[in-house]
């Protein structure tokens, strides 16, 4: 009897989970079509360019997160079973589904009643409505799926993997967006243009190729291929999800074969797929459907197609017996026992930063929101802070001073902060106190707990190769988070070596805090808050 009951509950959970996910997928598709295809305007047409760009990028981040969750649930049968168990029907689900519907209405209403020019003109006034709608839609959907308390327990039970996955989903699109500068790297640009031209030559004789202007076309239909169409996003997405797959299936995957054969083939396939995509869209436009072709060049369309491609590649790899081996007993976990506490504050930091960029006219003005989120995250992870061996170290202090001075000396000329003039004297003073306190006391703890205390510590097992890999893996993403990435990379190297010296996290935090204190002090003296 108990077995039958459990089976029925599981079947009910699967059915409900399937229905809810199908509804969410349809809603997401409708939002994408409405906001990226039917609402034909460029974010450069609105005053809040950063907020508009962040909102559109959030759709891509949601796509990456959904793909990552699918991959994770495929790899973790116990997580999948437990999620199905807590997704059973319940009375209060109607409340959450109602809030979700209200959020979706808030998202669609401005899109439905305003034409593109009016929407662009009133974007600043509509932004709070759209942001509130997105918040209600997301949390309403989560708690419609499962109650808050069981869902939170399920998330905590997953350990470090899900926070890392969330971080990857949040960081991957903006990092790939920054990596689009490689489009200016002539070998990549020339090879892509040449491949597209060669592909089009089989379909038409009326071909226009002007690489110096990044223009390709056929039969009078010409397109300027922007950096987001270069294929670098597809390469970044492919590399990230292949790495995630290798980690999730590390017990059954033949790693040497995967990295030496599947990884380069997948990257080559991603590049070739982008060439075929550009060529196909140009031919569609040349055949008399320019609107359809241009919509296909949307950034989201590219991300969607690349996501589908990488999932197909991983599905094929997952079913190749040549790549699989029998599961071995898992060895003791490498890395700190409080991994989740070291990851959580950084994940919150990234999510809060994206939210502020999406909702504030000038993201710098919203920094107190990020600071509040960091305080809350560090309170939740306070057990990890208590276990840190706190002591001052002369080498750490000197290293931090050197990094801070280097950051100040190499800084570009100060730029105006128009938002600061809009604040009253009391509000500005409060902002300065919060900004400086967070820069010195919060950010170093959050970043060093993740980059040195988790990433570097987890990879470094004492061998030279692993040590070099650990330093590179902790420094590269740290540098990518900063506009001045070269100086940030040098700072990351210093913090990594300070940490390695005695394997003491407090030393890296101290060096980072001293460096930030120097920069914050100079920023305060100059009134140049862009320096931080």
UniProtKB/TrEMBL annotation:
The keyword Transmembrane helix applies. It comes from the Bacteria. Keywords: Cell membrane, Hydrolase, Membrane, Protease, Transmembrane, Transmembrane helix. One of its GO terms (molecular function) is endopeptidase activity. The keyword Zinc-finger does not apply. It is found in: Cell membrane. One of its GO terms (biological process) is proteolysis. One of its GO terms (cellular component) is plasma membrane. Pfam families: Exosortase_EpsH, Rce1-like. It comes from Citreimonas salinaria. It is a multi-pass membrane protein. The chain crosses the membrane at residues 14-34, 54-73, 93-116, 123-145, 157-175, 221-249, 261-288, 300-322, 343-361, 367-385, 392-410, 422-443, 464-479, 485-500. Residues 431-518 form the CAAX prenyl protease 2/Lysostaphin resistance protein A-like domain. Its main location: membrane. InterPro entries: Exo/Archaeosortase_dom, Exo_VPEID, Exosortase, Rce1/LyrA-like_dom. This is CAAX prenyl protease 2/Lysostaphin resistance protein A-like domain-containing protein.
